[in-house]
Amino acid sequence: MDGLDSRGEVVVIGATNRLDSIDPALRRPGRFDREFLFNLPDKKKARKHILEIHTRDWNPKLAEPFVDELAEKCVGYCGADIKALCTEATLAALRRRYPQIYGSSVKLTLDVASIVLGPADFSKAIGTIVPASQRALAPPGRALSPALRPLLAGSFSLVLKALLRVFPHAQCADRDNAHGGDNQLLEDDLYSDDDNEERSASIYEAPPTGSPKTPLCSPPTHRPFLHFSSSALQRPTAYRPRLMLAGPPGSGQSSHVAPALLHHLDKLPVHRLDLPTLYSVSAKTPEESCAQVFREARRSVPSVVFMPHISEWWETVSDTVKSTFLTLLQDVPSFSPVLILATAETHYSQLSEELRSMFQRSYGEVVTLSAPGEEDRKSFFSDLLLVQAARAPPRLRSTGRCEEVLPAAEAPGPRVLSTEEQRRLAEQEENTLRELRLFLRDVTKRLATDKRFSIFSKPVDIDEVSDYLEVIRQPMDLSTAMTKIDTHQYLRVKDFLGDIDLICSNALEYNPDKDPGDKVIRHRACSLKDTAHAIFAAELDPEFDRMCE
């Protein structure tokens, strides 16, 4: 790369999905001038657009409310996962409409228009598809279960309000999802701390023509040129954002509320820190695993460090791990947007002094969850007992039900080529045969110029051997073979080798193994045959031979 001249004619593009394995020297300016990070489609709008792309040819088209709901369910899906989801839903509809195709070994005639996809098909597909980002590690965030939403909706709303207060970056993520802020570079120009930017001091020795900026003042009077400040609307600040969900066991803080909160923050990267994270990798010490989590969190800000069941594993780990954790926590810059989210299966007052010092209740960093109220329980049981229980139980489909008898599909006939396809095919065949003729001429010339085979280069003189045609019914020689090449009579290699074999067999048949002169001719005929076959075996590409066939 250093030896390439900057001529604007060579562009070097690199791609990787293991950014942590790249040599840092490749990422500095002078190697690759631009670096683009392609994350998962973390916005509902982006996933909806991908769904619309993969279903744009469907007739009828999917309803927009259904696409919105489906995009909301596809958190963590990449473009290939969304495409696989559409394919799997289509196959589910096919299995539902025509289950008999899986019991037949022949091709059946199907009415494609009768295959109509429904919500159940997409539900089955979502349950079948495992997103690529979730194959190695299950995501910590998931939506609140519809069955438990009446019980935990109030607690989740309370936690969400506390989150927006201590971590304003979550509100920015919501604004991006709502308004579709796709380009951060364009958003940076929407806010400015300098109301008189047009009249700010010029950075040039002489202001450009037509510029409203004032010329450079003397050093003692001019104010600084560069202001590394941004609007609080665009870059909200939070001092050491932390949030703990505490409460008695069974309140759902670790199993339902916290995962729903992380699902709400699907745009932000989440780094889990718990006992499995610390001790699952035997090649690393718990201290190294803890440092790795904080290093990744600080590298991908704004981010979330999720610590479930902190009240349990804090009493389990060693003092060295605790000291390492506290040191790393203090080393995080005060205004760095790294949210520390923890859950405790106990009351806040029963936590250790170290944990209470990390999460201050007076700062609004602790949310205590309580048991669902009477209205929440009433809403839960009314749906369960009055609505769901009143429905008739679903009928089991009989496995032996009468299935529609489908006729076997007719065997497809040969495809009719278009005029353009026929022209291209004929041109391709002519090019192949031309190369074959060039190769055969070269082989024939090499054999004819060999002094050993000069006796076979021309037809036999009938005046010298008058009985030749009485013995040999099909004469052949190299000169006749060359004529057949010129008249396009050889379409395959085996046809040419057949004539070479004919020359050899004619010589052996007409010249018995008696006279010394006849023995010489027989020897040269066999040598001609072996030489020709050896040339083809060594120089002819087998793939080209198959093309000729």
TrEMBL record:
The keyword ATP-binding applies. Residues 196-220 are annotated as: Disordered. InterPro entries: AAA_lid_3, ATAD2-like, ATPase_AAA_core, ATPase_AAA_CS, Bromodomain, Bromodomain-like_sf, P-loop_NTPase. Residues 448-511 form the Bromo domain. SUPFAM superfamilies: Bromodomain, P-loop containing nucleoside triphosphate hydrolases. Keywords: ATP-binding, Bromodomain, Nucleotide-binding. The keyword Hydrolase does not apply. SMART domains: BROMO. One of its GO terms (molecular function) is chromatin binding. Pfam families: AAA, AAA_lid_3, Bromodomain. One of its GO terms (biological process) is nucleosome assembly. One of its GO terms (cellular component) is nucleus. Belongs to the AAA ATPase family. This is ATPase family AAA domain containing 2B. It comes from Gasterosteus aculeatus.
